[in-house]
Amino acid sequence: MILVTGGAGFIGANFVLDWLALSDEPVVNLDKLTYAGNRENLASLDADARHVFVQGDIGDGELVAGLLARHQPRVVVNFAAESHVDRSIHGPEAFIMTNVVGSFRLLEAVRVYWAGLPSDTRDAFRFLHVSTDEVYGSLAPAAPAFTESNRYEPNSPYSASKAASDHLVRAYHHTYGLPVVTTNCSNNYGPYHFPEKFIPLLIVNALAGKRLPVYGDGLQVRDWLYVGDHCAAIRRAIETGRPGETYNVGGRSEKPNIDVVRTVCHLLDEWQPRRDGRSYLEQIEYVKDRPGHDRRYAIDASKLERELGWWPAETFESGIRKTIRWYLDHADWVSRVQSGAYRDWVHTNYAARAA
Ligand code: NAD
Ligand code: TYD
Predict the structure, then answer these.
(1) How far is the CA of 33 from the centre of ligand 1 (A)?
(2) Which residues span the domain enclosing 82?
(3) Is the beta carbon of 222 within 6 A of some atom in ligand 2?
(4) Given the CA of residue 134, which atom of ligand 2 is nearest to it?
(5) Residue 106 maps to which CATH number?
(6) pLDDT digits over 133-192, tens only?
(7) Model's pTM, two decimal places?
(8) Phi, psi of 65 (to 5 degrees)
(9) For residue range 87-118, what is the model confidence (pLDDT) as tens digits?
(10) What secondary structure does DSSP assign to 126-162, as a single string?
């Protein structure tokens, strides 16, 4: 059995669904159900005895220790985090509490559990920590993509808190020998992505006739990774990643933001044309930039490709089609996640960003 944290969020839910589609190994899923966690993402597992859902905080050491003792997992996968850069600018404290203090308490409970395991299970145990490329900071336009040896230069409260957790994970390996593997991935996209993030926000706003807010000049570059490819990389890293190592995961799909917006508009023009026959491109609005906005992220995933034989199956062109199709087919999910709290956030983030 494996213990997954944050498995009701975007990537965690995709991971749990894929895991149980591919194997019968049960999953204990510990999630606090913040605004970003949604039980409905896992509704297809409601009657599935292989999935045990527990609502709780990774920072609750007693709870985590009890779950570890009861379920005896061979692997812990840590997805739980506050994950949105713009929210970290408006309110950094939650990021410190979960990403730093929570990760520390989780590591501490796992260390005690792991130290008490019989030696063969102890050697086979893995703590897989899911991190981000944002810890490496921002790249100049022609600079080579991030490798695992790039210096950590986090620029936002979000990336600083993730960097801190990565350092703790590293220290638990170096000092105590805990068999950890860290993955640093680029921007994910795909089904169940909460519509505060760029790609789902574009799709949802376009269909609702709202503006498509592009920060600054729209020429910031992200390296887009389809979430199913990311989940496959994590499975590889669990099974064959070397303890103490970090692996970059990227989609080989660097795109300026404005190109992403245009692609989404063109596909929607084709699949769900506006009633007035005009293009969704007309909804684009350039708005005030994010403070400290990182200009470019790009991942060199050659270590993962070479050592673990992983390669992204989706191109951006195939992945974005799957993603848009999913949002068109799941209008109910979209309307249910747009709660009052979601609308409050949209107001907080966008009201002061008029063009
Ligand atoms: P998300 O915000 O969609 O989901 C996070 C989940 O963690 C939610 O279900 C939430 O309820 C849960 N959670 C938050 N605080 C918790 C706590 N204290 N205890 C237990 N559960 C808690 O995030 P995501 O996009 O799925 O990201 C998952 C992980 O991947 C994060 O660690 C994030 O930093 C990392 N990551 C994400 C991306 C991306 O593009 N989405 C890119 C790089 C790295
Ligand atoms: P986001 O999905 O928030 O991911 P991250 O900041 O972690 O990369 O944003 C992706 C890119 O899109 C980033 O450069 C910021 C930009 N962006 C916009 O231009 N408009 C928006 O409304 C949002 C949410 C993001």
Answers:
(1) 10
(2) 2-189+225-252+297-314
(3) yes
(4) 7
(5) 3.40.50.720
(6) 999 999 999 999 999 999 999 999 999 999 999 999 999 999 999 999 999 999 999 999
(7) 0.98
(8) -60, -40
(9) 999 999 999 999 999 999 999 999 999 999 99
(10) EEEEEEEGGGG----TTSPPB-TTSPP---SHHHHHH
